[in-house]
Amino acid sequence: MNEEIKLHEVKGYYQGTTNITHLSLVYSLKNRKFIKGYVDGSSAHGCIHYRLFPGRYIWIGYDYWSKADPPSKIEVTLFSIEEDGKKKDLKSVYIQFYNYEFLTQFPPQIMDVFHARPGYHRKPSLHTLFSKQYSEQDHERLINLLNSSKNYKEGEEHE
């Protein structure tokens, strides 16, 4: 008996409006790169459709809301896609910041998501992001960030 492994759909999204910016992407643990998704939507907002095999992945999401303090946040979440297609979050780390220079202490995947974010009524810049494979050292830094289980906020002390 040869069972066929099914692909399961997961949706990310983007938004680039006056007070809100959002981008969510899926990173492959196996291939050390962002998974290319099908982008569907307008210049202001839309979906990124992923077809994933069962396994573990990392979700990296950027959020900006002008009324938040600090206004920018990046969420890094380890998740799994189960055989039945259900998405299960396993652990998360949050990075809240005012200035992008704060991100230089984190793995380059974080800064790359920040730079790919959509602008005002513009789609995110994803072409170069989807074609970039990260070094094993950068990949390991991302895993260590998740394993630290710390949340980071610009202006707070961390040991």
CATH topology: Immunoglobulin-like
General shape: globular
- Helical percent range? 10-25%
What is the CA–CA distance across the termini?
53 Å
Derived from helix and strand composition plus strand pairing, the structural class reads alpha+beta
Using DSSP, what is the number of strands? 9
Task: Give the helices and strands, then pairings.
Blueprint (H helix, E strand, L loop, with lengths): L7 E9 L3 E9 L4 E2 L3 E4 L3 E8 L2 E11 L6 E10 L5 E11 L10 H9 L10 H5 L4 H13 L3 E2 L6
Parallel strand pairs: 8-9
Antiparallel strand pairs: 1-2, 1-5, 2-3, 2-6, 4-5, 6-7, 7-8
Quick structural overview:
With 159 residues, the protein is α+β, with helices and mostly antiparallel strands.
Explain this structure.
Helices cover 17% and strands 42% of the residues. The chain is of the alpha+beta class. It has one domain: Immunoglobulin-like (Sandwich). A hairpin with a 6-residue loop joins β6 and β7 (72-81). It is globular and about 50 Å long. The N and C termini lie far apart (53 Å).
List keywords for this structure.
42% strand; nine-stranded mixed β-sheet; alpha+beta; 9 strands; 3 helices
